[in-house]
Specification:
single chain, about 180 residues, alpha/beta, Dihydrofolate Reductase, subunit A, two-stranded antiparallel sheet, about 25% helix, Riboflavin_Biosynth_HTPR
Length: about 180
């Protein structure tokens, strides 16, 4: 059975989206971006909400830009090779290959995806992930914690949820970013 992984860049105070501005230094750092690519290279399916998908679809065409570094091209190729499921009530069509649109999040369908998958799945975006967390579907949490405190926004973990986790891996980057991987007990 494949794992469902929730991963995002977060602020030091636990926000996956800031009310204003960005979350600080992170994946634009080649060391961090290469690490992220290596960690998620073998993901078979990405589960996205519409907004996260619209951010990530950038990887479909990045190869057409001039002077793209090799680590960026590698990430784009890996992203394009994976299946994508976008949960949206408003998106008319997908603008990337290997992508299907679902109108609502169905925990039982995700359980079946996990049971049938040969490769791990990720779920990205705090709103969509909150539904998977509430349904008990998330097996691992990968946090990329920046050095910024943003004071508000959308939290990485939803309110009202109790989780007991085991830290299984951590790494600090020269930029100050911290990677922490937790497994659900």
């Amino acid at each position: 059975m494949a794992k469902l992984i929730y991963s995002m860049i977060t602020s030091l105070d636990g926000y996956a989206e800031a009310t204003e501005g960005d979350l600080g230094r992170g994946p634009e750092d080649p060391e961090v971006h290469t690490f992220i690519g290596d960690v998620f290279r073998h993901v078979g399916t990405f589960l996205y909400g519409r907004r996260m998908y619209e951010t990530m679809v950038y990887w479909e065409t990045v190869h057409s830009q001039p002077d793209v570094p090799p680590h960026i091209l590698q990430y784009a190729n890996d992203w394009k090779a994976a299946e994508k499921v976008v949960y949206s009530t408003t998106l008319e069509s997908a603008s990337s290959a290997k992508t299907r649109i679902e109108r609502s999040f169905d925990p039982d369908a995700v359980r079946r995806l996990k049971a049938e998958a040969d490769h791990d799945l990720t779920i990205d975006g705090p709103n969509l992930a909150a539904q998977a967390i509430a349904a008990g579907l998330v097996d691992e949490y990968h946090l990329f914690i920046t050095t910024s405190v943003v004071g508000g926004g959308k939290r990485f973990f939803p309110d009202g949820v109790r989780l007991d986790l085991d830290l299984v891996e951590e790494r600090t980057f020269d930029s100050g970013l911290i990677y922490a991987r937790y497994r659900t007990r």
